[in-house]
Amino acid sequence: MYRIHAETEHFLVIDKAPGVSVHRDQAESGLVMQVEQDCGEKLWLVHRLDRITSGLLLLARSADACNRLAELFREQRVEKFYLALSDKKPTKKQGQVVGDMERGRRGSWKLLRSRENPAITEFYSYSASPGLRLFLCKPGTGRTHQIRVALKSVGSPIIGDPIYHEAVTETPDRGYLHAWQLGFMLDGQAYRFRADPQQGELFQQPEVIDAITAIGDPGVLKWRSAGKPRPPAV
């Protein structure tokens, strides 16, 4: 279900497994409760990851810490990098997807042409192996299904995505979206965390591991949102 990746006086960083829900309004919303039981303390969920998404998730150790961390997310002062895999070549190898999002049918969301309050996703893509493409995504906003919809919009839905990828003969062992890195400043202290994907046959392919390694430090790439000082690695 999870492993503790790091902990401080104010928060825990856990590495969530794919297929685990963190939403309190769903029947399988036991993640935070399980961590609380294991750690013997009350915890607060700072932000959320979709059920299919694995990777880094912040849990605050006090209501005050939760409010301060949540404010960083609201003000877009948290640097986030995600990894995704698709079996379809994108219409462009790198770029930015910008547009308003609207709820669709059966739990889906769709990207609109309007930009009144747009979701913003930047990405780079890399050929990992024949028929398999690795995406490095940097969301500038935090909308529901944002990265999943963005990659669908450029013709590269995420492998194993039950909503945005068409049905296939052989069901993938997971949804291939992973919250890879988090960086932020809190109380004058810089934090940066990285957790490589540990689950999923495709993520464990040597070619994919090599492609992830070859990215190096994603913060040095040319992002349109660049300009703010980056927290150092922890």
Compact summary:
The protein has helices spanning 31-39, 63-74, 146-153, 206-215, and strands at residues 2-7, 11-16, 44-45, 54-60, 79-86, 94-99, 101-103, 109-111, 119-129, 132-139, 177-186, 189-194. The chain has 234 residues and is of the alpha+beta class.
Features:
single chain, alpha+beta, globular, RluA_PseudoU_synthase
Topology:
Elements: E1 2-7, E2 11-16, H1 31-39, E3 44-45, E4 54-60, H2 63-74, E5 79-86, E6 94-99, E7 101-103, E8 109-111, E9 119-129, E10 132-139, H3 146-153, E11 177-186, E12 189-194, H4 206-215
Parallel strand pairs: 4-11
Antiparallel strand pairs: 1-2, 2-4, 3-4, 5-10, 5-11, 6-9, 7-8, 9-10, 11-12
Number of folding domains?
Answer: 1
Alpha-carbon distance between the termini? 24 Å
Which homologous superfamily in CATH is the superfamily? Answer: Pseudouridine synthase
Query: Spans of 5+ residues with little confidence (pLDDT < 50)?
Result: none
Mean pLDDT reading: 92
Give the proportion of residues in helices.
Answer: 10-25%
**Which strand-content bin applies to the residues?**
25-35%
Radius of gyration, in Å, reads 17 Å
Apparent shape: globular
Instruction: Give the tally of β-strands.
Output: 12
User: Total number of helical segments?
Assistant: 4
Encode the helix/strand succession as letters: EEHEEHEEEEEEHEEH
What CATH first level would be assigned? Answer: Alpha Beta
Structural class: alpha+beta
GO molecular function, one term: catalytic activity, acting on RNA
Protein name: tRNA pseudouridine32 synthase / 23S rRNA pseudouridine746 synthase
Domain Pseudouridine synthase RsuA/RluA-like: 10-152
Family: Belongs to the pseudouridine synthase RluA family.
